[in-house]
Amino acid sequence: MAGRRARIFFRSRIVALSLILTCCSAEVSYSDPPKSSQLSEELDFFETKIRPVLAKHCYECHSESSSELQGGLRVDTREGLRIGGDSGPAVVPGNAAQSLLLSAIRFQGLEMPPEAKLEDAAIANIQRWIETGATDPRDGAATLPASALNLQKSKGFWSFQPIQVPALPRVRNRSWPTSPIDYFILAKLESSGLEPAPPADKSELVRRVYFDLHGLPPTPDQVRSFVMDESPDANERLIDELLASPRYGERWGQHWLDVLRFAETEGFEYDRTIQGAWRFRDYVIRSFNDGKPIDAFITEQLAGDEMDFNQPKGMVAAGFHRLGAVRRNAGNQEVAGSRNEVLTERTDIIGSAIMGLTIGCARCHNHKFDPISQTDYYRLQAFFATSHDVDIPMVPESEKVAWEKQTTAVQTQIDNLKSQLATQSAIEQTLTRKKMDKLEKELPPSLPSISTVQNQLGKETPIHVLRRGEFALPGKRVAEGIPLVFSQFDEPAEIDRAKPRTALAKWLTSPRHPLTSRVFVNRIWLNHFGQGIVATPNDFGLNGKLPSHPELMDYLADFFMRNGWQAKSLHRLILLSSTYRQSSQPRSRDVGHSFDPDNALLWHYPLRRLSAEEIRDSMLVVSGQINFANGGPSVILPVDKQLVAQLYKPSQWEVTPEIGERMRRSVYLFAKRNLRLPFMEVFDQPTSQTSCFRRQQSTHAPQALELLNGPMANQMAEALAERLRHEAGSDVTRQIDFAFEWILGRLPTESERRFAKSFLENGSTREFSLALFNLNAFLYVR
Amino acid sequence: MNQTCFGRRQMLGDSFCGFGSLALAAMLRQETLAETKSSLGPKPPHLSAKAKSVIFLFMAGGPSHLETFDPKPLLNALNGEVRPTEFGDAKYQFVQKDARLLGTKRQFQPHGQSGIEVSDLFPNVSNVIDDIAVIRSCYGDMVVHSAAQYELLSGRVMPGFPSMGAWTIYGLGSESQSLPAYVVMPDPEGALEAGQPMYGNGFLPAAYQPTMFRPGERPVLNLELPPGVSLNERRRTMDLIRNLNEASLTSQDLEFAARLESYELAFKMQTEAPDVFDVSRESEETLRLYGVGTEPTDDYGRRCLLARRMVEHGVRFTVVVSGGGSGNTQWDAHGDIEENHCRMAAETDKPIAGLLTDLKRRGLLDTTLVVWGGEFGRSPEAQGGKGRDHHNLGFSMWMAGGGIRGGQVVGSTDAIGLRAIESPYHFRDIHTTILNQLGLDQDLLTYPHLGRNERLTQLRGKVIHQIV
């Protein structure tokens, strides 16, 4: 990659560097204040009566120091006032009537400053100043060189620096590290006066590794075989075995789907189903299982349709661009405005998911913290200007034609009825609607298809910089390009107009890109340790959190890329470290708490509550009901009918009839934006409206009600009770041991066995099973 | 902090099913080491609070201001004409530029000491108008239901952001020991365009999600024991859970304190909440006051009465929705404004007046903010002859109680009710005012999300000082 092809593809770095230098030197020239000895009477008037007022009341929003220049107007330079901002010249020397500044401070039209009108004397002074020629000694540009300013500000910020390969730090306790990771962790612990927790015992560790890699509990046999395996490479073999299982992709695919705010419907009013979105879900799961290099994985999602024209695989991957919510509703659609909303979604997710930058903030104004200008934002958006939605039917042509014919016939009738509605009385309308509902049911079901995007060069959407991000206020038109701050690295030289997203992907996955690998590595770390090295995984910018271990971050990013962007090699590195194998019980909680209450330095393994999916999947496993089938269309579970009644069209919730299918893993459940399963919702399943980089872990009473009284928990308890009777017979002790081994991954202690026995003397096995589902030891991984 | 700890300790110690064991007591003594992670403990407001609870009477579909609280004689005079150009332009959902203005058939009369004009759609609400501050100059950004409903409820025109109810309980926690903190009572007629996400907790933790009430006597999911399980049996199960949790408890498992607490509250909800939901023990007179037992007010009356009972039991935020299902069973009067609004008003007028009267006589109105309104108003132009289209540029909402100075009108629309011209108030100003009454500061009530500290109001809103 870094060889000949790269040289052709990327523009020379020197050109870009000289550009920055030019901007910097330009900034120095206009900072010298005029010398007071030169001040004439007019200058004196300006300095004493005008400048202080402007500085006090206007500079906050209209000067070089504004975090966000309002209305494109600078009032801290002469040219700024005379050329003016978006509304035109603010000061016309000698002409008070034409000076917008004056009418604004008089609250005629604009009302400035917005907090309160200036005092009359100040207004009169400004009027006199303008009428007498508006003497103004302040040199400087009329507009703000925003990107140069921000570039300057961010110079040296860690995440925009090239990835460095750090040396392993020195540590005192030489016997603890078993992996390069451990040196970085231990060095920080030692310098903070902390020490790592003792190693976790093997039964604790095996449960942890299964949940981490599969999101499922180990079976008693799996626990036993690991605990009894005394060979030195037992740990390594366990990890390899788990990484080779299809359960791995189901767990780690879900993490990525969270980041992409994956759902199978569009949300908003119609909440239409995105046909074949499940194919994208399967593609993600398969990619993790196959050990697809992550740079290729990202490239396929961004540009699969361009790479692999008309091949289903690439088209499915490019379904990535269809995952955001889409507003569709009754009435006049503002077609162009809706297109803008779609493009916004598509641009913003590149920032949060792949670059770990809150690029979306620059939609309405230059980024307040990061070196991303509004122009940068729209240049990035322009990569999507020719991408349009397409749904590709996955049936033979003849079937497609028949389907279209049938659909058109019914749809025409519906449209006819619809057009009559406007002139009808309420009763007539009700009748018409009834007829329409009936007809809608006659529409043939959607064809199996792939929802994706394709470039349509003839239908390019012109991309403008939008004032305040408002579609109705287009500014200058821009072509695709990368944010200026990255010009210090490689950037695409020529973009093939037929394949703009391929160029974008190539740039993002360049080994010299400072963010993509760091951001991805951080996501993997986060899902092993509960928090990232950067605690704000979607924001590596100036407002994000600084890395707790910056050298480790770079070490891992470098390791990751050197190992062919293999997620699995990174898992292996992490899971084999002493850091990961620490117990969740620290040596001294008091000491740790006083230095590092959030455990950012990892002085023990963090306790973690299972996610909603893990809780449900685990209950399915231990009750013996789980159906481990892979992939395919999503499963819809029955829910309270009142919830279905609250859908725009209750027919959108068609429950999967086969009971066995309802026992599939949670990643295969239908992800509908406007109806989430109460069980999943209560345990913090994300809304899939915006990118979710980490699951919340809240604790509240409805969770207890769900696990005690909810239908899901009770059905599972019933099934487990049945299984206990079936597999352990009527011997209560055997039942208890069997249940503990499956649910908690260990045998009960003496006191636990006593409590359980005394309960079962006259309590039901079903309630016993339910109780175990409510235990901390089941719901948490330590 | 001390107050909170004491409250919880005492609660655990006194607890019905005995979570307050020695081991737990020992554990709680170590609280100086680690804060409980419970998300819903009561929290002090930022400012001095006037209201403790909010009831939002959500008139879904968009009630007409022109038929309710905003009399426009000129509109009647211009009936059948094209809108004079001096009123400016407007973009509607369906109505086109050639549409004709539509006068109203409703009669407006001044009412109460304040003499505020209210239409004859609301004879009962008119009687309590002196408690109400009518805001005639509301506006929003969107003219279609889904996006406008998101904006009304969550301050954004798209889903995924926390609703005002979620923000409220995030800011103030819960004062209820037996009920959820934030309750939504949808109209049994069916769905709304924005769906459930409009009420949701968005990116806030799940602890701040609403509890959606179902119609009937068992409004909350999972409050009843599963079939065939007796309360005694369940009590033993709870004991087993406690014993087993404690058996594996080490002194360092402080994280689990919040979980114990959540089971405690769950059990209380289970045993105490059904009584709160049972309105049959209210007096005949009270039931009549809300119109319970007579049509067409029975359903909305029951829900308003339930809302009062929620407030009495410390529920922070209650949404009582009027309107659901197809447009005409909402306030969405595209076809026939008269038919639709007469029906919708008849269902809600008495219950709403009953609610205000009842809150007041029980001394609850002072601390309960009642807000009335929909996602927009309706067009001065006719749609299809007798209907009105959506209209977001100027419409009415009202507030009462919770420190609001009633008996006054704020702001105004132009002479045909097209546009808010005097003191226009955006939804974010309504939100800011609600937060203000609750003692919450929009700038302090924030949550980090995707790189910035989000707040309910996005752009800063202003408090409607005239009424607070």
Give short descriptive properties of this protein:
heterodimer, A: 782 residues, mainly alpha, 5 domains, 6 strands, globular, disordered N terminus, B: alpha/beta, Alkaline Phosphatase, subunit A, nine-stranded mixed beta sheet, two-stranded antiparallel ribbon, 17 strands
Please indicate the count of domains of chain A: 5
Report, as a whole number of angstroms, the end-to-end distance of chain B.
30 Å
Biggest β-sheet: strands ordered side by side in the sheet of chain A: 1-2
Give the oligomeric state of the chains in this entry, treating copies of one chain as homo and distinct chains as hetero: heterodimer
Give start-end ranges of low-pLDDT stretches of chain B. 1-37
Largest interface: pair, residues per side: A-B, 92 and 94 residues
Uncertain regions spanning at least 5 consecutive residues of chain A = 1-38
At the fourth level of CATH, the homologous superfamily of the largest domain in chain B is: Alkaline Phosphatase, subunit A
The first-level CATH class of the largest domain in chain B is given as Alpha Beta
**Average pLDDT, all residues of chain B:** 87
Q: How widely separated are the two ends of chain A?
A: 42 Å
Q: Please indicate the percent range of residues of chain B in DSSP E strands (runs of 2 or more).
A: 15-25%
Mean model confidence by pLDDT of chain A:
88
Give the beta-strand count of chain B: 17
Structural category of chain B = alpha/beta
Q: How much is the radius of gyration of chain B in Å?
A: 24 Å
Q: What structural class should be given to the helix and strand makeup of chain A?
A: mainly alpha
